[in-house]
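input
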Amino acid sequence: MIVRRSAAVLAATVVIGTALAPAAVAEGASPSPAPAIPSGLYGTTDPTYDGVWRQSLALLAQHTVGVKPAAKAVDWLAGQQCANGAFAAYRADASAKCDAKTMVDTNSTSAAVQALAALGGHGGETGKAVAWLKSVQNKDGGWGYTAGGASDANSTSVVIGALAAVGTKPADVSKDGKSPYDALVKLSIPCGGADGGAFAYQPDKKGKLAANADATAAAVVGSLGKGLAGEPLKPVADPLSCGTADSPERAAQNGAAYLVKALAKDQHLTSAMPGAKNQPDYGNTADAVVALATAGHGDKAADAMRWLETHSAQWAEQSGPAAYAQLVLAADAATFDPRDFGGRDLVKQLNATGPAPASLPAEPTASASAAEAAKKKDDSGVSVWWIIGVGLVGGIGIGFLISARNKKQQP
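output
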């Protein structure tokens, strides 16, 4: 999914859309005017439900690959914050004071914290946001999408990322002696069954846990104390297996094992709406790649990344900035080149969905490219310097310009 939010909120969105449909098509009714898109916002679709989320992902992805976002894009995000520190999904009039009717939520708030903390210079905003998040922590140590809502794996994980982004240890943030890690471990499905190791989004009414791939991808990253961008770790030598989830790290490895198994058949994850045929879930597949890389198993995500290279272009174009951001973050985490992703420059495509960046990373010079290439072996195992030597001996006199931007090879 592009926007991680609670099932209740998604359901409410559907209900709202259904309720409004008859009025929109009633005889003589005028269609609702398209919302005006702020000049600093990424994307051209209605931002009502995902404005802050998609902006945060876009800025975070740009920062990850060395792009400095436009000042007005950053200012727009910071300006969405309410006085109490929380963020809503979108506020059309950010100059108006937030009140009880302003639907602030933990996901938008946490995503904004992660983006603003990464960019730097926004300690005041992130400090207030984290203080609000701490104030609405549930007794089980986790968070729901809205303040006071039942804890879920996705919301708890994105809050963990926000805490870590400002240098706060998630394990030290507790309520009634329970930390967010306790909440995630409680949502980890015990080993032994077909879905052992996966995370549930929430328990059902009877307390039963059902595997949820989106929740699992989020919880693997969250259980390791990382944020939406993940953090590629040194490859883990131990084979993936499911063991007793007696720690958040163990629960994360269990979740990674589940994701590898879920990806094995088609190299991607699937989603389905009730009564609809299963469809590829591009965003969740990208999230699973970030999760595996963060857990130290990026090599096992290589096939999924190749699948995304081949199949994700139309999805990203239709979905907009958050989709491009997810692909950029996945490519970076899995050591693929987001600027040469199946022949596409994801970074350029992301940048084109919003205001022009303030600056782009410098292109490598010819001498730097040659020096970098000289340190490596080509695919045949022959030294680049040996090839250059042969050229010189032959009197060809051709200079070699070796690009440092080839897609990084998988371990």
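quick obs: Confidence is low (pLDDT under 50) at residues 1-28, 366-370, 372-411.
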